[in-house]
Amino acid sequence: MSEKHVVEYDENTISVLEAVWGEGFMSPGGTEEVDRVLGSVDLSQANVLDIGCGIGGAAVHLALTRKPKAITGVDIEENLINLSQELADKNGVSDICSFQQVDPGPLAFSPESFDVVFSKDSIIHITDKFGLAENVYQLLAPGGLFLASDWLCGYEGEASPQMQAYIDAEGLDFGLASAKIYRQALEAAGFVDIEIEERNAWYRKQARIERDNLAGPLSDQLASRVGEDFLRRQIDVWNKMIVVLDSGEHRPTLIRARKSCNL
Known about the structure:
Elements: H1 11-21, H2 30-38, E1 47-51, H3 57-65, E2 70-75, H4 78-90, E3 97-101, E4 114-120, H5 129-139, E5 140-153, H6 161-170, H7 179-189, E6 191-198, H8 200-215, H9 219-226, H10 228-247, E7 250-259
Parallel strand pairs: 1-2, 1-4, 2-3, 4-5
Antiparallel strand pairs: 5-7, 6-7
Helix pairs in contact: 5-7, 6-10, 8-10, 9-10
């Protein structure tokens, strides 16, 4: 979900991200990182909302392994929704997974419609974290869980020149916020049992592996598909990202919180 209704993830970008992160995934860690976000949470009777479902990898993985009652994936880009549905059909989980294109802004589902709201590295595109937290809180049933991964920043105020160079290279509508802002937003919305788990150290190592794969084993295959110039620009994005991962300005983070049962 984004605050600007524009197509940001075209076919070439998706090809590169899937090559690096696995079928259906547009963010790091694939199924392992999805499982880390959820931990031991039992989804067997849950109605799950996946905010920013991308091309469906997380939703399909949850359907296959956690067997929830239903998963609703939402995104603003029609091409992503279509690819999500194709992946669900391919894996035989269309009876559990459904996908909807939505407009930017608050999601208009009925209050208390979901037991779990999940998101994997997509709420970075939503600048208003307080509005996001309030919307998620309204959508959750009492006792419901917000389980997310996102790309946070390790600073308050203006980005450094190196961080700005990385953001510019990405060319995406990043609305970065710090862990402090996320915690304040969740508390203001009424969430309890808030957990913030830092993943910078893991991704500093992983990003180098990804960059080296793009420049090495994956290069011929991807260059023939997306073109050498496009691939070169993507490698440059990774190089710039590694700089700000090392500086701590780019901080992948897991976020967990619960809506109180005592309302």
